[in-house]
Amino acid sequence: MPLTPSYTREKNPLDTASALALGWLHTARFLTTAAQLHQLPALQVPEIAFVGRSNAGKSTAINTLTQQNRLAFASKTPGRTQHINLFALGRRGQTDAVLADLPGYGYAAVPQADKLRWQQVMVNYLLTRANLAAVVMLCDPRHGIKELDEALLEVIRPRVEQGLPFLVLLTKADKLNRSEQAKALSIARLQAGGGDVMLFSALKRQGVAEAACWLRARVEQAGGPEQALA
Fold it and tell me: Which of 11, 25, 80, 191 has the fewest beta carbons closer than 10 A?
């Protein structure tokens, strides 16, 4: 009776890379919060900033990527969170990178004075934070990149021209059908001005592995300790 050949399934390099990236992101833990830029600690490790409109799903995206339910808090009243929150990343208690959760912008119920103050804080942060290694802008693809999003992209343009990577993450992609997703992706790529664009759904896990790999690659690119990322 002939023997049936046995086959060993080879590991998909992409699966391995995403598993490593997601495992690394799962080490995220609260580091500090600051109401003003001068209250932020001066850090030497790469820092990736998350920005977006108040209803763009920023907290949900951070929690999904780090596989933690309550790392980033979404205010019950959009636009009321007015602090920069830093989360440390790294195994065995070491910090090899930091995620920065910036206040959401664009919510109409916030007093105009607060809007202007926080817009200025964000501008100053994005222009002057020395260890800023990348920016992730979250956007609801049903509404597209709006005027305030375009203003933010314009703010970081000088740093982008100097090599700062940025990613437009189209959240809530599950709200669109396949053709609508393709259209939203195409339009966002035209508006992003050279940045990367990805579809993302916390509910369907769409784009989670890809976004995790993008974040990990940016830290490696910025010189994050390779042994901590391994």
Answer: 11
Two tokens at 204?
């369907």
Would you state the pLDDT for residue 227?
44
Number of helices followed by number of strands (H, E) in the chain: 7, 7
Q: How many CA atoms lie within 13 A of 93 on its CB side?
A: 0
pLDDT at 81: 61
Tokens of 66: 């780090």
| Residue 51, in any domain of the structure | yes
pLDDT tens for 169-186 read 999 999 999 999 999 999
> Is 8 inside any structural domain?
no
The pTM is what? 0.88
**Burial class of 87 by CB neighbour count within 10 A (0 to 12, 13 to 18, 19+):** buried
CB 54 within 8 A of CB 107: yes
Residue 185 lies in a domain: yes
Q: How many structural domains compose the chain? A: 1
Task: List the structure tokens of 7.
Answer: 């086959």
- The pLDDT of residue 79 is above 80: no
